[in-house]
UniProtKB/TrEMBL annotation:
<feature type="transmembrane region" description="Helical">
    <location>
        <begin position="12"/>
        <end position="39"/>
    </location>
</feature>
<feature type="transmembrane region" description="Helical">
    <location>
        <begin position="51"/>
        <end position="70"/>
    </location>
</feature>
<keyword id="KW-0282">Flagellum</keyword>
<dbReference type="InterPro" id="IPR002191">
    <property type="entry name" value="Bac_export_3"/>
</dbReference>
<dbReference type="GO" id="GO:0009306">
    <property type="term" value="P:protein secretion"/>
</dbReference>
<keyword id="KW-0969">Cilium</keyword>
<keyword id="KW-0472">Membrane</keyword>
<keyword id="KW-1003">Cell membrane</keyword>
<comment type="similarity">
    <text>Belongs to the FliQ/MopD/SpaQ family.</text>
</comment>
<dbReference type="Pfam" id="PF01313">
    <property type="entry name" value="Bac_export_3"/>
</dbReference>
<keyword id="KW-0812">Transmembrane</keyword>
<protein>
    <submittedName>
        <fullName>Flagellar type III secretion system protein FliQ</fullName>
    </submittedName>
</protein>
<keyword id="KW-0966">Cell projection</keyword>
<dbReference type="GO" id="GO:0005886">
    <property type="term" value="C:plasma membrane"/>
</dbReference>
<keyword id="KW-1133">Transmembrane helix</keyword>
Length: 89
């Protein structure tokens, strides 16, 4: 395997991971920002007020995007196996 193939494989892996994790990260960030605004407005600084809603929102998004995520993982895995079978490495 040449250096170009290794870089391309690593790039594809990072891109796939980023695409699969982006909905979870954006959800946690949006819910955290919303809770922070509410906490600042009401002067409540309870840690569980930040953690529990973020946890529930991320779990909800994980359940909602599970099928899509599995499709992405399977497509990536199939593409890698196809490359190996074709002698691309």
């Amino acid at each position: 395997m040449g250096i170009e193939a290794a870089v391309e494989l690593l790039q594809a892996t990072f891109y796939t991971a980023l695409v699969m994790v982006a909905p979870l990260l954006f959800t946690a960030m949006a819910v955290g920002l919303l809770i922070s605004v509410v906490q600042a407005a009401t002067s409540l600084q309870e840690q569980t007020l930040s953690f529990v809603p973020k946890l529930l929102a991320v779990v909800g998004v994980m359940l909602f995007t599970a099928y899509w995520t599995i499709e992405k993982i399977l497509a990536f895995t199939q593409a890698m196996f196809d490359r190996v079978a074709a002698g691309g490495f």
